[in-house]
UniProtKB/TrEMBL annotation:
It holds the Pfam family NAD_binding_2. Keywords: Gluconate utilization, NADP, Oxidoreductase, Pentose shunt. Catalyzes the oxidative decarboxylation of 6-phosphogluconate to ribulose 5-phosphate and CO(2), with concomitant reduction of NADP to NADPH. The active site is at K184 (proton acceptor), E191 (proton donor). Residues 180-464 form the 6-phosphogluconate dehydrogenase C-terminal domain. This is 6-phosphogluconate dehydrogenase, decarboxylating. Homodimer. NADP(+) binds at G10, L11, G12, T13, M14, G15, N33, R34, T35, V76, P77, A78, N104. Its EC number is 1.1.1.44. Belongs to the 6-phosphogluconate dehydrogenase family. It comes from Fuscibacter oryzae. GO terms for biological process: D-gluconate metabolic process; pentose-phosphate shunt. The keyword Oxidoreductase applies. The gene is gndA.
């Protein structure tokens, strides 16, 4: 039998879609799934693409079905499942073979697996794939990390299945070790933040302006025809317009307000803290998901204090401007965090390429990312808020953000992400801040010392013997 060019383990939502995409682009692919009946059902439903799919029912059969040097994609849940599959595959693989973890992964795990692979003589790539099921099937955004030579070996297949922005494939090597998974993690952190900010303006429309779901859908559709054009605004319109087949009510009005999460947003927030790279909008978005899941406490809070959200005097245009400003602030934070990680870990992540690889295929794709790619190409070391295009947009829209946050605060709407973005923006445009007080306090109780504005070599205050 003709050997496959590549193998794949894990025919769940993403793995099945990715395998069909690979087969559709003309590559013969061998597949294996822990539950064998899933493999059989996958092939039975693959239609004419089944001709390029080799179903296997043991890992040995999978390995035997692939032409050496082999490349095997893992598309299984993050954590133990990946380690288990690597441990099971490793004894079956040779020196030049390659394992690609294409699921979401904590980059610390990827760094560890990369180091272990080097010792064991099997190549390892940690690769972020974004775009959900639809993206995986028809063109995801792919962020690779690991040995450059290993990436180059599989790049022809990966670029053939990736989304395209114009003619440019959205599949890029981001650096060694965990760089690819780190970039995907920050992508997801931004995804959390973008979703949360959209959710906050949805809440203002629903509870502050008294708009019904179809009217809210119209607003999102309108925004999606303008500067906010993006996949997340587009699907928010579709979600708001959908009707529950069971009750005939708007879908949004029957969905429980408790958000799930698998961990990538939390990983972003934790790593940002380690890197001392502020990403307050992302942190706020993670916090908001955590609060959302504490339904019983929220019910008790409403009983104790009364429902928060009251009518607001805002326009849909105010909300659009606030979202524009919030989005710029959040992406600026995300790219700054990537820059900090790249420098700390010595990865050399190409920031303009990150923006480019996110322009199509992935969940955070938007028109704005094309302008961000241009701004980062001009000067990768400059904070995006200082790039002329985005500085001009912020000057135009930060007033709307301020108005929206203020009206929300006065009328009981919690806007954690938009408020966090505004607070960060105001700190970032204040040359003389207030941390002199913190330094005074630290010196008072702990003799930690401080620098003086006048440069004099006196590093302690007259605290009456305390310092
Ligand atoms: N869904 C999405 O939108 C996206 C998901 N991802 C990431 O892709 C990866 C896969 O996600 P998704 O396809 O949604 O998940 P699914 O739950 O749909 O599929 C999981 C797959 O992994 C297999 N599996 C689970 N545990 C093990 C194990 N211990 N050993 C071997 N195989 C196992 C399952 O096999 P079995 O049939 O036997 O249960 C199944 O094939 C995750 O890392 C996820 O974070 C990335 C981007 C988008
Ligand atoms: O990686 C993804 C999208 O880019 C996955 O859909 C991921 O599951 C989203 O994160 P969460 O489940 O925590 O919302």
């Amino acid at each position: 039998m003709e050997l496959a060019e590549i193998g794949l383990v894990g025919l769940g939502t993403m793995g099945a879609a990715l395998a069909l995409n690979i087969a559709e682009k003309g590559h013969r692919i061998a597949v294996w799934n822990r539950t064998g009946t899933v493999t059989d059902a996958f092939v039975a439903e693959a239609g004419e693409l089944a001709a390029r799919v080799v179903p296997t029912h043991s890992l040995q059969a999978l390995v035997d079905a692939i032409a050496p040097p082999r490349a095997i994609i893992l598309m299984v849940p993050a954590g133990d499942a990946v380690d288990q599959q690597i441990a099971a595959l490793r004894p079956l693989l040779g020196k030049d073979d390659l394992i690609i973890d294409a699921g979401n992964a904590n980059f610390h795990d990827t760094e560890r697996r990369s180091a272990e692979a080097e010792v064991q003589g099997v190549s390892f790539i940690g690769m972020g794939v974004s775009g959900g099921e639809e993206g995986a099937r028809h063109g995801p955004s792919i962020m690779g990390g690991g040995p450059r030579a290993a990436w180059d070996r599989v790049a022809p297949i990966l670029t053939s299945i990736a989304a395209r922005h114009g003619e440019v494939p959205c599949a890029t090597w981001m650096g060694p070790g965990g760089a690819g998974h780190f970039v995907k993690t920050v992508h997801n952190g931004i995804e959390y933040a973008d979703m949360q900010m959209i959710t906050e303006v949805y809440g203002l429309m629903r509870d502050g302006l008294g708009m019904a779901a179809p009217a809210i859908a119209d607003v999102f559709d309108g925004w999606n025809a303008g500067a906010l054009r993006s996949y997340l605004v587009e699907i928010s319109g579709a979600v708001a317009r959908a009707v529950d087949p069971e009750t005939g009510a708007a879908m949004l009005d029957v969905i429980l307000d408790a958000a799930g999460q698998k961990g990538t947003g939390r990983w972003t927030a934790i790593e940002a803290q380690h890197l001392a790279a502020p990403v307050p909008v992302i942190e706020a978005a993670v916090m908001a998901r955590n609060v959302s899941s504490r339904l019983a406490e929220r019910q008790a809070g409403q009983a104790a204090f009364g429902a928060g959200p009251q009518p607001v005097s805002l326009t849909v245009e105010d909300l659009e401007g606030a979202l524009m400003a919030g989005k710029i602030l959040c992406y600026a934070q995300g790219f700054t965090m990537l820059d900090a990680a790249s420098k700390t870990f010595g990865w050399g992540v190409p920031l303009p390429e990150c923006a480019k690889v996110w322009r199509a295929g992935c969940i955070i794709r938007s028109d704005m990312l094309d302008h961000m790619a241009q701004a980062l190409t001009e000067d990768p070391g400059r904070n995006l808020i200082l790039a002329p295009t985005f500085a001009a947009l912020l000057k135009q829209h930060h007033g709307a953000l301020r108005k929206v946050v203020a009206a929300a605060a006065l009328n009981g709407h919690g806007l954690p992400a938009l408020s966090a973005g505004l607070a960060w923006f105001d700190l970032m445009r204040t040359a003389r801040g207030t941390a002199n007080m913190i330094q005074g306090q630290r010196d008072f109780f702990g003799a930690h010392g401080f620098d003086r504005l006048d440069g004099k070599p006196v590093h302690h205050g007259p605290w009456g013997g305390h310092a």
